[in-house]
Amino acid sequence: MKFLLVFDFDHTIVDENSDTWIVKCAPEKKLPDGLRNSYRPGHWTEYMGRVFVYLGDNGVKEDEMKRTMTTIPFTVGMVDLLHFIGENRELFDCIIVSDSNTVFIDWILKAADFHKVFDEVFTNPAAFSSTGYLTVQDFHAHHCAKCPKNLCKRKVLKEFLDKQLERGISYTQILYVGDGGNDLCPVMFLKKDDIAMPRQGYTLEKKISQLAQSLSPVECSVLVWSSAIDIMSYLKLLVKE
């Protein structure tokens, strides 16, 4: 029997938001107010599409974007944790479910040689157009009222588990590591043997504790982490068992 590790990416694997990190490539490292204020809640991917057009219009090329993205810092302890998972692949399946995009995540993981740690990455598809502009699309369509229109992480997780079951693979325990509000929906899908691992002081932890206070707590166990070493310590206990 295996464990499934599900990771968010921004503010979880890396210690920043990859989508806002790319703004370092913009003239004067900032966006015009009109563009910045054009974001509508739940429509982040469309907003990032406009950001990428602005960068392209200002002559920002792929190699410069790649150089910038690969300087993004990993969260404290994350490098050690990913090495540990990589050394114990027979025990863990590992996926990323993120509202970032395929190009950024691919660059960052490959630069640090962590791409082999993950079985699959579920995120918004991105590519460079023939004119050298980065384009991004919604990951999928869904009917979940709680999630941004481009991505419901619960749907991704459920479809992945269904697909694995068809292959004859089920998991002893699912461990979900994340930080954001859009991580709550998949966490509420977890069962009592599973574990939600919200990052300390971030939105997910606050939302989980609000649910507990309103007497509708999540069904799974909750283990708060501030450094990825906290997660690794727990995984080492699992491996010993």
UniProtKB/TrEMBL annotation:
Where along the chain is Mg(2+) bound?
A: 8, 10, 179
Cofactor dependency: Mg(2+)
What residues make up the catalytic site?
A: 8, 10
Pfam hit, one: Put_Phosphatase
State where substrate binds.
Answer: 19, 99
NCBIfam families assigned to the protein according to its UniProt record, in alphabetical order: DKMTPPase-SF (TIGR01489), HAD-SF-IB (TIGR01488)
Q: Which protein, by its recorded name, is this? A: PHOP2 phosphatase
Which organism is this protein's natural source? Chunga burmeisteri
